[in-house]
Amino acid sequence: MTASDAPLRPPLIAGVGASSVRLPPGAWTLLIDFLDQRFPDVGRALWHARLTEGKVSDAESGRLKPDAAFVAGRLIRYYRELPPEKRIPFEASILYQDEQLLVADKPHFLPTIPSGRFVQETLLSRLRRDTGIEQLVPLHRLDRGTAGLVLFSVNPQTRGVYSALFADRQITKTYEALAPTQLALQFPLRHCSRIVAGEPFFRQQEVDGEPNAETLIEVIERRGDLSLYRLQPVTGRKHQLRVQMAGLGIPIVNDDWYPNLRVAADAEDNYALPLKLLARRLAFTDPISGMPRQFDSVRDL
């Protein structure tokens, strides 16, 4: 089979790609026998329906039928049954796009990538569906509650050089946050602390020890009891800005997790109370063109 004759990668459905499984060594006769044993919660009848509808395929044969043989080592792709998802009523916008990059401006409450109960209602799934770019991949992530800029790779061949910008700290990320006015601290300040996993599992906490998180914090303007802060993280620990601001006694407005857990991770969102944290700016030297790049969110807190 030549490259031009090879089956294409299964297309996206509603912006969501196919899942995959590599067939292990085993004594199964038919593929459906393995699938039924490997995924018992799905059930043989549903696997039969998926195979009949062409929702299971491999690179060698393309779409597979219910009587397809089990072949160890083969990579099988299949579509999950996607339950209906409640639509998140906020839209992202595309600020920039070329052959290498896409810059999206994410709203509050929209996850960056599929996770847990969010599959179609994510920034990645929406952008893949709207642009038709199946190879679109985020180069970094924002918390679901955080709004602002997310940088995506369009071209898999150049993805590595752009990913390295984040790994090598060659990209400047600037956030803005609305939090209580703090007159006891002198700004600007450089806050360094050690952040580790906390309780429950989805929270983080500051502990004594060698710092692994660093952020430059400045006051942009005072608004009475609240102030608008500029935050520039040097490191990229999970929930870093939220944890450090809470640790300084100036928790970000509407943060339900820091300093105290007020709302469970799976609680319904209160759209009237978004977390007042915005990824305002991304700036870096393009590793391919050598030209300076800067992108700014058009959102406000």
List keywords for this structure.
alpha+beta, four-stranded antiparallel beta sheet, 30% strand, elongated, disordered N terminus
Please give a structural write-up.
The protein is α+β, with helices and mostly antiparallel strands and 301 residues long. The chain has five helices and 15 strands. It has helices spanning 31-38, 44-52, 123-131, 159-167, 240-247; strands at residues 19-22, 56-58, 62-63, 75-78, 93-97, 101-106, 137-138, 147-153, 171-180, 189-197, 204-207, 213-223, 226-233, 277-285, 292-296. Strands 5, 6, 7, 8, 9, 10, 11, 12, 13, 14 and 15 form an eleven-stranded mixed beta sheet that branches. A four-stranded antiparallel beta sheet has the order 1-4-2-3, with no helix packed on it. Strand 14 (277-285) and strand 15 (292-296) form a beta hairpin. The N and C termini lie far apart (56 Å). The model is unreliable at 1-7 (pLDDT under 50).
Secondary structure category = alpha+beta
Q: Helix fraction?
A: 10-25%
Arithmetic mean pLDDT: 90
Topology, number of strands: 15
Binned strand content = 25-35%
How many alpha or pi helices? 5
The main β sheet shows up as: 11 strands, mixed
Poorly predicted residue ranges: 1-7
What is the straight-line distance between the termini? 56 Å
In angstroms, what is the radius of gyration? 23 Å
Question: What is the N-to-C succession of helices and strands?
Answer: EHHEEEEEHEEHEEEEEHEE
Shape designation:
elongated
